[in-house]
Amino acid sequence: MAAEKKAFVLRIQAETLKELERWAQEEFRSVNGQIEFLLNDALRKHRKRTRNPADNDPPADAQA
């Protein structure tokens, strides 16, 4: 079963949109597909970082 997709309005700077359009074209994606790809990649990296937050903390005996 396919995941349900939700539509929403995105306000974005014109120059940022132009860059996204160029990048999406280079990777044979639509702008929407490129934005979705980038968001999913960022979320995946965020989940990986926050899965074990203690692993990212300096040791308790480390001095600043």
UniProtKB/TrEMBL annotation:
Residues 15-47 form the CopG-like ribbon-helix-helix domain. GO terms for molecular function: DNA binding. The keyword Chaperone does not apply. This is Arc family DNA-binding protein. The keyword DNA-binding applies. GO terms for biological process: regulation of DNA-templated transcription. Keywords: DNA-binding. It comes from Spirosoma taeanense.
